Automatic annotation (TrEMBL):
Gene3D superfamilies: Tetratricopeptide repeat domain (1.25.40.10). InterPro entries: Cyt_c_biogenesis_CcmI (IPR017560), TPR-like_helical_dom_sf (IPR011990). The keyword Transmembrane helix applies. This is Cytochrome c-type biogenesis protein CcmH/CycH. GO terms for biological process: cytochrome complex assembly. The chain crosses the membrane at residues 89-107. It comes from the Bacteria. Residues 222-242 are annotated as: Disordered. It comes from Acetobacter aceti NBRC 14818. Keywords: Cytochrome c-type biogenesis, Membrane, Transmembrane, Transmembrane helix.
Length: 242
C-alpha cells in the first residue's frame, strides 16, 4: 500500500512540470510558417480583386511584394526546436521518484507498523505516573526514617537524582541539601552547586559558598579542583558586579 501511495504522490507532484515541458516540446519551423502566411495573403489578395475591393494595378503591386517575401522566406533555413533537451529533462523528472524509492529502500522500513502519537503520549503519561508513585513511596519511607539511620542520607541523594532526571530542579536541590546537612561530601556539594547555577542562570552567593566548602574539604589531587577554582573566580567576579 505504501508503494502505491508513493507512486501516486510522485505522479501528482511531477505532472505539472512534465505537462508544461511536453507542451513546449513542439516543432517550430519558421520557414514553413512564413510560407503558409504569405500563401494565405495571396489567396486573400485574389479574393479582394474578385470582389472589386482593390484595383488590378494595386493587386499586381501587392502580389509582387508578397511573392518577394515568399522568395526571402524560402531561402531561410528551417529551424526545429531540439526535443532531446526536453526529453532528457522529462526522463530526469521520472528518475526522481525512482531515486527516492531506492534511497528509502536502503534505510526505510515500510513493514514497520504505524506509530500514532496518542498511544506514545499515553505511554509517557503512564511512565510519569509510575515515577510519581515511586518518588512518593521514597518520600514516605524517608519521612519515617530516624535521623541516625545511615540509609537516610543515601535516600535523599537518590531522591535528588530522581527529581533531577525529571527536570524538577528545586525538588532535587532540596533533597541534596538535606543529604549535605546529614553529612557534607564535596562531590555532592559540587553537584548541588551546579544544579543551582543551571536553575538560576548565574553563580549566586549560596552556590559560591558551596564551591568554596567543597574545595576546602576536597583532597589535593581531586580531578575537579581546577574547574571548581575557575567557578569560584567566576562567581567572585559576578558578585563584584553591581
Amino acid at each position: 500500500m505504501i508503494w502505491l501511495s508513493i507512486a501516486l504522490l510522485s505522479a501528482i507532484t511531477l505532472l505539472p512540470a512534465g505537462f508544461t515541458l511536453w507542451r513546449r516540446a513542439v516543432a517550430r519551423d519558421e520557414r514553413s510558417t512564413a510560407l503558409a502566411l504569405h500563401e494565405a495573403q495571396l489567396v486573400e489578395l485574389d479574393r479582394d480583386l474578385d470582389i472589386g475591393m482593390i484595383a488590378p494595378s494595386e493587386h499586381g503591386i501587392a502580389q509582387l511584394e508578397i511573392q518577394r517575401r515568399i522568395l526571402v522566406a524560402d531561402r531561410a533555413p528551417a529551424s526545429m526546436v531540439d526535443r532531446s533537451g526536453r526529453v532528457k529533462i522529462i526522463l530526469a523528472l521520472a528518475l526522481i521518484p525512482l531515486a527516492a524509492v531506492a534511497l528509502y529502500w536502503t534505510g526505510g522500513h515500510p513493514g514497520f507498523p504505524a506509530q500514532p502519537l496518542q498511544p506514545r503520549l499515553e505511554a509517557l503519561a503512564q511512565r510519569d505516573m509510575r515515577a510519581n508513585k515511586v518518588i512518593a513511596q521514597l518520600k514516605d519511607a524517608l519521612s519515617k526514617m530516624s535521623m541516625s539511620d545511615p540509609q537516610l542520607r543515601q535516600g535523599y541523594i537518590l531522591l535528588g537524582q530522581a527529581e533531577a532526571s525529571r527536570g524538577h530542579e528545586q525538588a532535587a536541590m532540596d533533597a541534596w541539601r538535606k543529604a549535605l546537612e546529614l553529612h557534607f561530601e564535596p562531590d555532592l556539594a559540587i553537584e548541588l552547586a551546579e544544579e543551582q547555577v543551571r536553575a538560576e542562570k548565574h553563580i549566586s552567593a549560596d552556590s559560591l559558598a558551596l564551591y568554596r566548602q567543597a574545595l576546602d574539604a576536597a583532597p589535593k589531587d581531586a580531578p575537579w579542583r581546577q574547574a571548581v577554582e575557575q567557578r569560584i573566580a567566576q562567581g567572585e567576579h559576578e558578585q563584584e558586579q553591581p
